[in-house]
Amino acid sequence: MKKKLLLLLMALFLSVFAVACGNDGSETTEEDQNQEETNTDGESGEESSSITVSDIYGEQTFEEVPERIVVLEWVYAENLLALGVQPVGMADIEGYHSWVNIEPELGEEVEDVGTRQEPNLEAIHALEPDVIITANSRHEAILESLEAIAPTLAYNSYPEEGEGTQYEEMEATFKEMAKLVQKEEQADEILTELDQSYQDIETEIADAGIENTDFVLSQAYSSDNSPVIRLFKDNAMATEIMTKIGLENAYQSEGFQLYGFDETSVESLQTAQDAHFFYIVQEDDNVFTDQLAGNPAWEELAFVKEDRTYALPGDTWTFGGPLSAEVFANQIKEALLQEK
Amino acid sequence: MSKQSYIGRTVLTFGGGTVLLLLLLFIHMNQGSVSIAPSTIFNAIFMPEDQLEHHTVRYLRMPRAIIGILAGGALAVSGVLLQTITKNPLASASTLGIHSGSYFAVVFASVFISAASGWSGLLVAFLGGMITAVLVYTLAGVANANPVKMVLAGMVITMMFSAFTSLLQIFFENETAGLFLWGSGTLVQNNWEGVQFSLPFITIGLIGSLLIAKSLDLFQLGEEVATGLGQKVQRTRIITVLLAVFLASVTVSVVGPIGFVGLIAPHLIKLLGFQKHYVVILGSFLWGAVVLLGADVLARVLDPTFSELPVGAITAFIGAPWLIWLIMNKQNKKYGSKDTGILAGSINSLAMQKWIIPILSVFAISIVFVGISTGNNGIQLVQTFQAIFLNNDEFTKNMALDLRLPRLLVAATSGVLLAISGYIFQGVLRNPLADPSVIGITSGAGVGALTFLYIGSISAVWVPLGAFIGALIAFLVVMLLAYRAEFQPALLALLGIGISAFGSAVIQIIVVRSDMAVASALTWLSGTTYAKTWTELTYYLVGPLIILVPIVYLVSDRIHTLALGDDTAKGLGLSVLKTRFYLALLASVVAAASVATVGTIGFVGLIAPHVARLLLGPAHKHLFFTTALLGGVILMVADVLSRTLLVPKEIPSGIIVAIIGAPYFLWLMNRSNKWKM
């Protein structure tokens, strides 16, 4: 018994040790540190005035433009990329690539700092960030720990009922972040261009002679072979973008949903049959061509019979920033115009 | 029972059941996001036309209703078979862990092998279910399978597989996104495929069950009688278990794990006085269908937006109180002896005993050292200590002292508190299986925390308070029931299972009903030492550690006295009930402090006292310290592993403890087949 116990203890100890040694990262930190030193040396003294940025908790002041930024939610990384700034670290990079599709790519050298839900504090600390940007809903509980590492800005992409729309919030946060990296002009330009492209798209759609402007937007995935269908409500950012290009949301339902969609069944589609039906599905999980094909309750819907359904690519991100918004608006346009 | 009243009952059971089923079917068909007139529904069924309303009824609503009837029936029959063959009134596919095994197998397959559905899904589910059944059966001791032990083994296996499943869900958030709802069981169907797929299998299962009904009647008379009457008992047993697992896995592969139907329906039939398996099986099928369809109707009444509320949560919500009632009602009858003096443990060599505390202390200290210098960048013992003591590297020093050390200390303290709580419970209730999670206190804390988050929708900072209140309420309920059950150890364990199941159902309902990100709730529920700081340590843990632990130590004499048995304790002049209540309250407060900080981490409180007794013997004076040390060490090791195994991803420590702890506990149980339970 004694032997067994000792063996067990030793095995445990060894496994901890082995695991720890397995991640041989000590050299990289040193490198990072050296890099960091040269970086700050080069930049020091350029900025003199301080920057004041607000997040959902109030105002924070930065003495100089933060160089090393860690983002813990995709949309904020996207905002940075739009402004031509690469973060030094981000959460769940792999997931980002399969769900989000925007032009400036995330740099190869950006470090993964773990899952979006429980980002690795040590990895963040090791990057020695000047600022951390995160979503309040995910990280309220660890805000204190993040602030111990670096000044932290927390935003909330999903305003409560009556507290403004998701779209307004997106614009506001984008501008705040632009203020942080001192690229406010660029941000305004991007937003103006975005509004311009909405107008252009609206004209194109109108010119193409598409008269029916009603739409339903859905995101769907299968759960054990049966489709789960999300239908976007008026408060969703995606629906607001579609409204901006002159379309109208035909799906109406009671109640407020924070994230902007109802999770519902095929039956609800009947309420908006005369609209154009846009759906986002992952390529290998197209519930509409897989599970629902041949089902009369789907096939007999007016928009299916009259061929008004449009598949959007799987990496259409409806919860993103201005770049995702533009990509999304263009995808809708292309889908509509292709038919003509 | 007179013949006339038997006929009366039969008419009532089957006639009444059928009428009720038809009524529920009618209500069910009327529920949906589009309102369709009852006359249209009638026409759609009997005079279908090619129009959308009729299609909606025929292709969306009817399949859902029918699958509900089939699944409910199959689960009930599976429950009947399992109850008879294990001679265990509490057996069912969910209480024996078969569901969780099947479900884990399906999730595993869908992550690693690609979408498992239809045939392959059934095969995977069946394999998972069979493995679990064999495991439970072996662990509970085939020959003298004690009902309580069997259900307990089922519960531990469920905890283990749930830990594995959560692990997959945390790392493959997007791949398994759709599986969460299904994991609680849902009847959503979008065509007849599910029905077409399962109908033949369920029919085969049902017919098979009816064919062996006679053998089961014999089996119930006792194995010797059955053998005497020329039955091959072993063969009957194997066929029955195969059929039961088959029926359960068909339903898991189509609608996900739905608990408690297999428990409620057979008992309803037996309560009505039916004995013959032919009738019991048919009646259970009918009433199983009624229960499940009724639960689905209720789920959609509760959630009128038709965002799906998992029907499995509803059956647990109704079923768990039923389980508790069943246990209370049958107390003294079937669950074995009242007194179990099994705070056993073989006493090892005396030399060993002397060294236990020094060895553990050294180990604990070295874990702290290793833990402080281990993290994202591997192990850096020397650098770290140079940084701390010579102050030559501010960065490493901060990392060690602000990130790793508080986490380690939170883990250590929580571990100590949980272990002590388990130590008190096991002694005071004279129950080797008592620990804050087994008797339902942790699940109460979970409900409290989520209720605060959801209904109060207040800041996450207040979650610990919610957990604390939830734990205390759960404690009072457990004590009230336990008092009525005269604190019988086996009953208490079963009551705990019932209360845990009820708590989990409430948690599921809250998680689905609220807008909260499901993943974040899941992470918290699985227990985590993630990102714990000095604040948590000082706010929630230091106080209890300084105030409560010494108190526990001071009263540990009374714990030992109570452990000797009520009569002895009374003889020694102790007011047994009062002492027991206050000690248990103390244990709950101790546990609640830990749960409030790190969420629901199971097994530590269960295992630490066991290991201590294994090392020192049942009544050693160092038991208290050894238990506390062990608890701290277990959770610290889990913490170190949780942040180093898969950098930069974190694994919740609770899951690590479950993955290490469950097999250990099962081994312990297997060993204890030699002991009396």
Quick overview:
The complex is a heterodimer of chains A (340) and B (677). By secondary structure, chain A is of the alpha/beta class. Chain A contains 13 helices and 13 strands.
Proportion of beta-strand residues of chain A: 15-25%
The chain-level mean pLDDT of chain B equals 80
Question: What's the overall average pLDDT of chain A, rounded?
Answer: 79
Percent of residues in helices of chain B comes to: over 70%
Radius of gyration of chain B: 26 Å
Reading off the top of the CATH hierarchy, the class of the largest domain in chain B is best stated as Mainly Alpha
Q: Report the uncertain regions of chain A.
A: 1-47
Assembly state of the chains shown: heterodimer
Instruction: Give the total of domains of chain B.
Output: 2
Rg of Cα set of chain A? 24 Å
What structural class results from the helix and strand content of chain B? mainly alpha
- From the spread of the alpha carbons, the general shape of chain B counts as globular
Judging by the overall fold, what is the CATH architecture of the largest domain in chain A? 3-Layer(aba) Sandwich
Query: What is the H level of CATH, i.e. the homologous superfamily of the largest domain in chain A?
Result: Nitrogenase molybdenum iron protein domain
Biggest interface, chains and residue tallies: A-B, 79 and 87 residues
Number of domains as seen in the coordinates of chain A: 2
Beta content of chain B: under 5%
Count helical runs of chain B.
27
